[in-house]
Amino acid sequence: MSDSHDAAAALPSLPVFLRLAGRPVILVGEGEPAAAKRRLLERAGAMIVGEDDGVARLAVVADDEATVARLKARGVLVNAVDRPELCDFTLPAIVDRAPVLVAIGSAGVSAGLAAALRQRLETLLPASLGRLAEALHAARPALRAALPDMGERRRAIGAALASGGALDPLGAPALDDVAAAVSAAQPATGLARMRLRSHDPDELTLRQARLLAAADVVTHRADVPPAILDRARADAERIECAAPPLAPATGLVVDLAMEEER
Question: Which of 41, 166, 204, 244 sits CB 3.0–4.6 Å from 255 for a disulfide?
């Protein structure tokens, strides 16, 4: 197992979505870089203030390092434009399908790459994505009544949204009765055993990647690398064990083992 695959388990930063409407954010600097950040902050509803504001806890600085240092000394989290080594947080490229937002970041390493990925995703994600999200939100009371178990409900929603499912977000989902579409979905359950030929997560087959992403529980041998385990949902339980489980838990259990060398 290479060091690069071990390192894949660590996040360079934690992606978060901040509600800035009506909240002060410091913006320091002039020129187009500062103007671009101003436009972005104003789209998020932030109140743009100067360095002397004593309430703001976030700042975007398109200025010299002295300004960055002064703000950090006050406990303000700073985005230093084009200087990733000075940033406490970075601002991603955004695909807007409100209320769905897709943020692409590179930890400040390459804004150009993030922008290129955003442009590619703009062509892939349909304009109807926001309407699908709103329809799912509106269907929550009906779904809770039809599927009171949270795990069962999550699996049914996942199956409906899967590729080829009734609510496939990249297809043409019918939004007239979302609750019925979810209730009729047939999520995968039971035990799926996967034998991996490589430590590289990019060499997972499409079926393996889909099963891993849908798993409720991931059981695995000790030599399965973190980079593979990270392809499962963050809230999927992970259990290291010497052998596959005899009795699968409720939902989908995916068991991972490296294929033996011959």
Answer: 244
